[in-house]
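Technical note accompanying the year-one report. For the benefit of new consortium partners, we illustrate the data format agreed upon in the data management plan: each record pairs a sequence with a structure-token string. No post-processing was applied to the example shown here.
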Amino acid sequence: MELKKYSLRATKVGSGKGKVKSNLTVTPRSMENGSMSDESPIRVKSYALALRIVHLCRFLVQEKREYVMSRQLLKSGTSTGANIEEAQQGQSRRDFASKCAIALKEGYETRYWLRLLRDSGYIRAIEANDLISETDEVIRMLVTSIKTTKRNDRSGK
């Protein structure tokens, strides 16, 4: 099975006066050895998003010296995937739906911080919009998962 790679667009400040732009491809290490190849799409996408958020927050702290918003983004952006991971081990459908609802809230918070960082000029619009689109995709998947779980719980499936 071919591994899907997720691109990470990062802007780094070089040793000279100008900025050096680079397009990096990030493949989660756990995907390289095949352990995530059987994972659900929402787990893979939320993990890849969390990796991109970690790299962005590192850039914000090291290059932009921005600490407050980047910390909030790091917490919400990684919590989304962590709660999805935890939901997979839910003890019941309701537990699963509850954990997914928490992940959904974290996803909305992540989108908020990304918009704020974009609109305050800390990150370029193209990079922020790409991350916002990725966050929205995870949010849509969570909404669908929660609705399906609740529908199946009501119908007794």
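Partners are asked to follow this layout when depositing records. The chain has five helices and two strands.
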